[in-house]
C-alpha cells in the first residue's frame, strides 16, 4: 500500500520564507544526497530511535514484495545520529517527492557535533501511514530485506550503505547492526 504525502507536506510552510533550512537525515539521506546543499554536518536528535519499520513499495520493493526502510519512533532519551544538510527551501519539492511514500515533514531541533543547535526539518513516517509495517524480529526484518528489490535497487544495498555510513560517522546503532549481521548470513547462504 502507499499514500502520497507530497500534498500534505507542501502545506508545511513554516520555513518557506527562510533563506536556508537545516534538514536532518537518518536513513538514505545520510548516504545518498541527490540534491544541492550549502553545508553538511554530522548531527543528532534526541527522543527518537531509528527503526526499519517503514514499508518501501516504490524505491526498495514493490507492491507485491515491499522492502523495509527506516523511520523514527519516539523513545525517551534516545539519541539518533545522522547527517544535517543546509538547503534552500526550494529543495523541498524534490525531497517531498523522494520521501512521498508515507513520510511527513516535522520541525525538529538538532544538535551538531560542536554542541550547537538549530531548528530544521526531518521526514518521519508514523505508524498511521499506509506503508507502515511496524516491529518484527531483527532476523525477520533481515530476511524481508534480503528478498526485496525495487526501482532504486536491492533493499539489501540500502541497509548495507546505511550501516557503512553510520560506521564512517563513528556511530553505533544496535538495531541497524543487528539486522546487518543477519543479512550478511542470508547473503552468504544465498552464495552457497
Ligand atoms: C531519511 O533518510 O532521513 C529519511 C528516510 C530515508 O529516506 O531513508
Structure notes:
Strand 4 (104-112) and strand 5 form a beta hairpin. The chain has six helices and seven strands, in the order H-E-H-E-E-H-E-E-H-E-E-H-H. A five-stranded mixed barrel has the order 1-3-2-4-5. A two-stranded antiparallel ribbon has the order 6-7. The model has no long low-confidence stretch (mean pLDDT 94). The relative contact order is 0.22. It has one domain (6-191): Roll (Hypothetical upf0131 protein ytfp). It has helices at 6-10, 28-31, 92-98, 138-146, 155-168, 174-191; strands at residues 21-25, 39-56, 67-87, 104-112, 117-124, 149-150, 153-154. It is α+β, with helices and mostly antiparallel strands. The structure holds succinic acid. Succinic acid is lined by residues 25-29, 69-70, 99, 123.
Question: What is the fold's blueprint, element by element?
Answer:
Blueprint: H1 6-10, E1 21-25, H2 28-31, E2 39-56, E3 67-87, H3 92-98, E4 104-112, E5 117-124, H4 138-146, E6 149-150, E7 153-154, H5 155-168, H6 174-191
Helix pairs in contact: 4-6, 5-6
Bound molecules: succinic acid (SIN).
Succinic acid (SIN) binds next to helix 2 and strand 3.
Amino acid at each position: 500500500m502507499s499514500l502520497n504525502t507530497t500534498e500534505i507536506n507542501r502545506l508545511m510552510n513554516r520555513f518557506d520564507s527562510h533563506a536556508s533550512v537545516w534538514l536532518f537525515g537518518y536513513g538514505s539521506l545520510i548516504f545518498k544526497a541527490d540534491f544541492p546543499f550549502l553545508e553538511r554536518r554530522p548531527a543528532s536528535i534526541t527522543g527518537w530511535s531509528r527503526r526499519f519499520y517503514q514499508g518501501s513499495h516504490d524505491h526498495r520493493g514493490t507492491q507485491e514484495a515491499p522492502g523495509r526502510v527506516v523511520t523514527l519512533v519516539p523513545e525517551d532519551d534516545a539519541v539518533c545520529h545522522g547527517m544535517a544538510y543546509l538547503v534552500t527551501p526550494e529543495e523541498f519539492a524534490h525531497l517531498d517527492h523522494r520521501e512521498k511514500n508515507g513520510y511527513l515533514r516535522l520541525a525538529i531541533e538538532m544538535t551538531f557535533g560542536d554542541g550547537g543547535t538549530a531548528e530544521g526539518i526531518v521526514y518521519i513516517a508514523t505508524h498511521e501511514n499506509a506503508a507502515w509495517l511496524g516491529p518484527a524480529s531483527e532476523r525477520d526484518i533481515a530476511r524481508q530485506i534480503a528478498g526485496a528489490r525495487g526501482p532504486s535497487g536491492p533493499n539489501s544495498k540500502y541497509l548495507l550503505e546505511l550501516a557503512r555510513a553510520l560506521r564512517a560517522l563513528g556511530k553505533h546503532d544496535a538495531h541497524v547492526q543487528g539486522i546487518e549481521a543477519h543479512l550478511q548470513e542470508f547473503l552468504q547462504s544465498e552464495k552457497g
